[in-house]
## 1
Amino acid sequence: MADIDELVVQEHLVVVDYFKRRPMYATAAALALDEDLVRGVVAERIAWQAASVPRDAAATRIGWHWRDIVRMGEEGRITQGRGGRYLITDLEALAVEADGEPTGS
């Protein structure tokens, strides 16, 4: 569903009705979607999932409490994106910074 939601956000699909509280889309509009567009949306999701972790995994990864991870995301110190996931490279940089080690690029 995440890919369909992204297509809706990008206004490539429009909700035309609901069935049992679930959105429905025009079949013709879905069939008319450009294959490269759909592949791009899927590729972006896969890349984001590979480069990020969910909140609890982020906390475990650097040994912090999940509330600190959320706070750092809200403060913009770590990138939070789709699915409430956090960018791994930001987490690692934050952990190094917290340990007092120099950060390098």
Note: The helical segments are 2-9, 27-31, 35-51, 55-62, 66-74, 88-98.
## 2
Amino acid sequence: MQHAIVRADQALARIRMGDPRSAAELLQECVLAAVATGGRVPAIRLRRARVELRPWRREDFVADLDHHLMDVLGA
């Protein structure tokens, strides 16, 4: 669970430093870790980071992340 939290926090930092593509890559890892552990905190951090990516919602790297989320979560 801690791995997913750290990855999500790192992704948030990268978004705020202007590197959303790198952040999305970290979040790809975070998705699997959050689902594997089932923890609430990783899911909250992942959701917060995804919200921060809204300005880039039309970019392929965000679409890929969204597809990954839907595949893993079954939504």
Note: DSSP finds four helices and no strands in the chain.
## 3
Amino acid sequence: MRIPKRVNTVLDWAEAHLGALAIVVGLALVAAATLTLPPAVGFPIAALIVGLAVGGFVDNLRMSKRVARQRAEIDDLLRQNGALRHRNTVLSSGVITRESQTTQALLMIPEDDGPLNIEPDPGRTQKLPELEELLEEERGER
């Protein structure tokens, strides 16, 4: 037998909210049982119980929408976090070498053992040659 789409949608919704529906049905039965009491006592108690059932069910529906939205956001954040971890793992594993990791913000400075030739001494500060001295050295070498 084929189930119509509307009926299938209602059954799926009821399956998703089974706990809340069970509580509402239970409270409705308790409210019906209180109607057997004298009307001065039974009606107010039944109304209170029905109000609790309806209010609790509406609150459950409202909160379930929020929870679904938060779960979707958490899933998206976890997916992004996993992608970032994967990228960092690939970068740190050496698949991409350091020489190929260049950015537009940083220019590559070629290694040049030109005329500076200063030997580092950790004990003192050394003076860098002036531009004029460098130019004189270049003219003298040519």
Note: The first helix runs from residue 5 to 16.
